[in-house]
Amino acid sequence: MEFLWEGLMAVTWQQGLMYLIGIVLIWLAIKKGYEPALLLPMGFGAILVNLPFSGVINQELAGVGEVNGVIEWLFDVGIEAAEAMPILLFIGIGAMIDFGPLLSNPVMFLFGAGAQFGIFVAILVAAAVGFPLIDAASIGIIGAADGPTSILVSNILGSEYKGAIAVAAYSYMALVPIIQPMAIKMVTTKKERRIHMDYHPGAVSKRMRIAFPIVVMIIVGFIAPTSVALVGFLMFGNLLRECSVLGDLSDTAQNNLASLITLLLGITISFSMQAEKFVQLDTLIIMAIGLLAFVFDTIGGVLLAKFINIFRKNKINPMVGAAGISAFPMSARVVQKLVQKEEPGNIILMHAAGANVSGQIASVIAGGLVVSLVTKFL
Amino acid sequence: MGVEVMQALNIMWMGMAGIFVAILIIMVCVLIMQKVIGKDKEENLES
Prior knowledge:
Chain A is mainly alpha-helical. Helix content of chain A is 70%, strand content 2%. In chain A, α5 crosses α16 (247-269), α10 (147-156) runs parallel beside α21 and α11 (162-174) crosses α18 (281-309). The mean pLDDT of chain A is 91. By secondary structure, chain B is mainly alpha-helical. Chain B has one helix at 2-36; one strand at 45-46. β3 (204-205) of chain A pairs antiparallel with β1 (45-46) of chain B, so a sheet runs across the interface.
């Protein structure tokens, strides 16, 4: 009857800790509503892959040989092979994005760029702490505040910390409402946070909305070829939305495709949360550096706005700069909520939304550039 | 470790420069497109 408790006897304390982490992720998803679409499957998957001799990962069975596990298969096919899952998800994300507020106020493009600063601060800190360049760059990309980009870059570079990076990226995206206000208040005054911004929506023509994704894809493709898959599929999804002749496909991309891929991605990424890889001191250090990345993203965007204000008569509320991170649409809403607290009736949501979608483009560019630049130094 | 910190610093300035260059090019293209194709017929205008 030994076979009945063989599994139980084989549990390690690290696996026990992973059960706890899985339960915490599930609790955060359900009770707190933190990115439930991803944290819940990741939490559940973390338990699945850490059960001894788990059938969801490849196992060697005596007398039978190697038996494939479904989560390992999903990881090999959906992520390892060509990063298909995060890239396909970007079709759905592109179909959900309205670039109108950005196109009617192009200066908001700059904040998407400024708010990627945290990526490079994190790479620097990770390198200083002792991570090899490949891992430092993969850790830094947590600052892109974009799950698919983080997964893609860490997979292309072959980082051994994929699991920790994915958990950090999605957890901190969910914690944007807590992280950003704190970081914004560190570098702004109350007077600056109360700056009013008028919104005069310029009409954005349909031709403009159709041409934009094509032009962006070409420009980014030339500058950061490694990001063509991400930016291409993002813009493809957006073109499906804006062309107005593929309503069914656009709806499918925004809803069914995005939901299906999100469901599978969360449970697939849990493959990299096996105890022997995840339960290390490095994981805690990565979580700390990831937090730093988000803080410096926010600070980068805000400081850029303050710099631009030196040259402008109509001042920009510096909090709009913070919305340049890629956590869409949460960051824009967080900034609006903060400005409402400072001064009820002050509306900067559309400006923040413009910066937020710019961040989506900039984060993808950043991912491609990080891969290109790191490989030049190897 | 010192070598990797120097490499990270290089990646930092090149990366930020690259992102800004890309974004500025996109911005300029958007401004040009607004002049060339931005003005559409009344019925096609959307805000």
